[in-house]
Structures are given as C-alpha cells and as structure tokens.
Amino acid sequence: MSLLNLAILLSSCAFLFYGINCLVSQTMKDEFVRFGLDKQRQLTGILQLLGALGLILGYFLFPIVTVIAAAGLSILMFFGFLVRIKIKDSILQSLPSLIFAIINLYISVQYYYKIIS
User: Within a 10 A sphere around the Cβ of 30, how many other Cβ atoms?
Assistant: First the structure.
C-alpha cells in the first residue's frame, strides 16, 4: 500500500468517526461549546462526513472529488488548529488538527498532480 493510499484510508476513517461523533456525542457538543462554536457543530460534522465520503468516492470513481474533499478537509482542520491556538489549548491538544490539515493537503496535491499528468 502506497503512502498516498494509506493517507486516504486514515483520513477517511478518522473523518467518518469524528463526523458522526460531532453530530451525536455529548463530549463533542461540550467541546464545541468550549471552542465557542456550538452553533457550527452540526455543520462541522456534516462537512467532515462529506469530506470522508468524498475521499472514498474519489478514490474509487472520480479523482477530482478526492482533490476537492481533501482540500476542504485540510482547510477545515487548519481552522480547527487556529481555534485551538486561540483558546490556548496546549500544542499536544492542537497538533492532531494540524497533522490532519497536512495529511489532507498532501492528498489533495498528490491527486491534483495525478489528474494533470
């Protein structure tokens, strides 16, 4: 399995998990209140689920969907990282969002180059 395929598998599974949790978990509801984003929780969960499904659909059928989904997830996680910094979470608490932003940026760029070449 290539690094790119592993990244897609990791990201799609993680965002399926977190997207569902974002919509139904009381812990996630409490976190979004702590972030000051309680009104954006459902939208965030839906975007995470759409991104995960986009990665999967794009992998099997339409590579451009992978580019778009990964870019969207990368942006979402970069803003998640900024929120964590703004509320003064530790670097350990903030790092996962930055790592997922980088992973999805990698996926997006690699798939973009696959399409144009």
Answer: 11
